[in-house]
## 1
Amino acid sequence: MSSFSIHGIGVSSGIAIGHAHLVSNALLEVVHYQLPEQLVGNEIARFSDAVLIVKKDLETIRGTLSKNAPAELGAFINTHLMILSDKSLSEVPKDIIRKERCNAEWAIKQQMDDIVEQFDAIEDEYLRERKHDVVQVVERVIKVLLGHPSQAPNQTNKIQQQESVTILVAHDISPADAIQFKQHHFAAFITDVGGITSHTAILARSLNIPSIVALQRARDLINDGELIIVDGSLGVVIVNPSKDILAEYELRQNQWMLEQQKLKRIKSAKAVTMDGTTIDLYANIEVPEDVDAVKASGATGIGLYRTEFLFMNKREMPDEEEQFQAYKKVAEAMHGLPVTIRTLDLGADKQMNPDSVSECANPALGLRAVRLCLSEPQIFHTQLRAMLRASHYGNIKILIPMLSTLAELRQTKLLLERAKLSLRKQSIAFEENIALGGMIEVPAAAINAEAFAKELDFLSIGTNDLIQYTLAIDRTDDAVAHLYNPLHPSVLKLISITIKAGAKLGKSVAVCGEMAGDAKLTRLLIGMGLRQLSMHPSNILSVKQQVLHSQITKLNSDARKVLGLSDLEKIEPLVAKFNLL
Ligand code: PEP
Ligand code: MG
């Protein structure tokens, strides 16, 4: 087996060595477990039910096709129905379940792999490509099965054992898929597409496992089960490494782990500069379970809780009680430290389901975040009530994403008052003076930051979107990833305007985008006047190390020099020099 390497964009550092596990999106969750003899009958029934549901779904889709729908669409559904009724998919998996005493998902996936292999051997290209139809039909069945879990015991242990040495190789992974990895234990993941600050990449960083996106053809070039090395820092994947390379990387992996270990020594040190200025280092979280990592990191608060992940991979929206319990859990676990909960930021690359596709041409410019909430006031009301109720149990602040006009802010405030009123009427306790902050992540809001600061208690700069919207670069599109640069002078100017607006009105300003967790930018951000940075827990210690070795007076003058420049080519080397001091 020859060795080769593939280059992409490293989005989460570290080194992983393991075996490739190729997945297509909906097959991500398929795991293998054995059933006790007495459950085999149930499992076969579960499989038959799932096939029946998919059949009915397909027939319903066919029935609802309008007369004007293209003929291929009907033919396409018919093909899928035919594939599904073929014995090889509707009967053979039952034999597999019976013989191997395995779960239904695994059985149909095995059978699918077999069929796909046979298709691969077909010379006729058209026929060969029909394998995609088989995969799509199987995906449908698996999705239904996953929505109706079997009664088999101890699944999680098996999942973990299987995944501990596994590197996930996918064409693409949606944020909704990636959030599920939090419960699993993959050693790394790599994808063909994706941008550096896409939400999938952000989740990869929060999982603290190496990952690389934009590898273009990793899924075609790598075979299932092949040994691969993922170097997340360099963005390189080495397939079938030679003995020497493997030994070299094992050494590097150990070094990396030692460095991480060393950093832990400053975990309980206060984040104070050499001349005595305290910098608040807060954490970003996606789900309540992340609080453990926050505590282990030594963060002194939560600067961004992205609540939309609570809404993903669900058939229905979480109700007020479910949301309240999640927010309360975080508030209580943080024991009075600040917990900044952001209202729903669905839309753009964050859809509720991995396969729901936004119908608008430019979803990042569409009905996203606060715009979506204001157009669905009932959803907003439910979430605001849940947040307010949780505020009784800790130090909660509310953060509004993607504000671009004062009208949006004022409407939000009215809805917040309405939520408060409804709670008062029911005599439900909440914090009357709960702080309300706004994200500055649209250039319009940054330019007008003073007006927002006047009407808010605090500001938080979302640099991921601020860069995307200022530079007109889709953060999920790897084709323009090389243009995505936090040091672009226009981006720095917008950040500076926001910091000054906060200072003028005595309102705190934080950064909670990925810039805050990049230790190479810490000195610049502090020099520009920021005193609060919120990032993934895994970045806290490396950023703290920078803080501990900094002198504010020096950083201020350095930052002034950077802000005086309007040429990116001059800014980059100057900022790089800061870190040598
Ligand atoms: C940002 O845009 O910088 C931000 C923190 O929000 P998100 O990444 O969730 O869009
Ligand atoms: Mg954002």
Note: Residues 401, 441, 462, 464-465 surround magnesium ion (ligand 2) (CB under 6 Å).
## 2
Amino acid sequence: MKEGTVIKVSGPLVVAKGLAGTNIYDMVRVGEQRLLGEVVEIRSDEYSVQVYEETEGIGPGQPVYPKGVPLDVELGPGLIGSIFDGIQRPLDVIASRMGSYIARGVEYPPLERERKWHFVPVPRKAGDIVGQGDILGTVRESALVEHRIMVPHGVEGRVSVTAEGDYALDDAVAEVETSSGVVDIKMLQRWPVRQARQVSKKLPPDQPLVTGQRVIDTFFPVAKGGTSCVPGPFGSGKTVVQHQLAKWSDADIVVYVGCGERGNEMADVLLSFPQLKDPRSQESLMARTVLVANTSNMPVAAREASIFTGITIAEYYRDMGYDVALMADSTSRWAEAMREMSCRLEEMPGEEGFPTYLGSRLAGFYERSGNVICLGAEPGESADRRGSLTIIGAVSPPGGDLSEPVVQATLRTVKVFWGLDERLASQRHFPAVNWLTSYSLYQQVVGRFAAKTIGPGWNDNRRKALRLLQRESELEELVRLVGMEALSQEDKLVMEAAKMIREDFLHQNAYDALDTYTSLEKQFYMLDTILTFYSRAQEATDQGVDLLQIIEIPVKDKIPELRLVAEGDWKVFEAVERDIVEQIDGLVKGGQVGI
Ligand code: ADP
């Protein structure tokens, strides 16, 4: 392949000539420092290269070395627990060998080559025929993840797998006799990042991704294999929501892409994740997490690489049959990077200067989500191997303006919208998810699941609670005009119940050890208690009891404390519900309420 020459440099964009044989999206190395770049446009003999490192010092006449392959990532044991930059350099390894500053052009293998992994073959008959995606054996990658070594795409034939033992990534663990010769299968594989990995079939999502966040799980749930977005102005809690999901959601694997974030937030992820424990297994959270984060000295173009690197790693684990969740924070920074590159490429601008392909690029990213039947099978495996990839993207529109192009393009694709509200954030109501504007198109799917696993009252309670909140917002108008006193008893009770839902249920402190996570069952009990209070109070006021008296029943003070009741301690909830009924009934009968 021919070596090219730089003819022009414009920030992260380098134009080269003489690269005949190089294709669009192929990787190149630019200049003496061999900076990594990707060809993003070819016009006759002019090759525009998006460079993923600072281009200072690069000038016309310097060489450009083609690599002849598209931008790809290494896949294999060792991904879990790693911290990569957008072009999959292992930041943790580099930091330990070279210090905090990464010299430009540094090439480091993303996955350790010397390390041996204990490979356990899946039992097979000699001479079995295998095809792409079939599992050949497993490796214990971390305390939480069993890495499944799969036959690479496009390989099919008679297999012979090595014996159980310790192997390095480059050692062959199997041989497949294909029609075009024998192929050695290693634990290390590569995949071009811009190409979605194939699956056997996409299915509609049918289970919730349980996040432990009450406003999400009960009101606006996301399904495993679904897509959601969290737009909100600066300071409204996007990052905290993303972190909470990464920590608590019941995915097997979490891939967290910090793309163009402010450095201190990413530092928070990098410092806090290794300290945190997975709530289900008590193992370190890193035992199921891969972090992708650009360093602050990487140019904007690297944001795009980090998104694609992250999603490819996520797909790889989905293909093994895992439930994977990918969080991208924030996709607005990626869109801004696209705008900058598009401008430098002198493309025709679309809305607000974003490229006209903004929508299709974002859609292409979210479409890589899904609840799927994976390619391949294991011997003796009767059911299809299922996996899922859920994508949750934060969007940070300037000034919180939801009508701007990135939010709008995202909303056209995703199925869940958690709208963060500046007003709620300023009132310190967190998570500041606005219950009037947010929505989830997985409500039915999740509702069916919850009705079966938690109880038939789940959907009814959700509907009632949302209705109360809606009524509250209508009544607020009236209260502003004529004051609380003008409301009827019934409306005053609606206001009281809605306040309880907001303060005692929706408000959830991410920094409190107990409040930070709530199981579906506990969410049900919490909401059910408030609604029991409401319905009983409604009956009592109908029978002439004064609302003020009802509001003062002693057990009401216990409701705000329910958030801190330990998981599984359902007797406490039952006792509170019983007391609510007894104490309100006591008022109806005109009796004394015991303290
Ligand atoms: P953004 O990423 O939208 O700029 P952050 O996620 O950094 O906003 O949130 C800003 C601040 O809001 C946090 O530092 C924290 O103090 C507070 N906050 C957000 N969500 C919660 C929550 N669930 N519980 C407690 N505090 C929260």
Note: The radius of gyration is 28 Å.
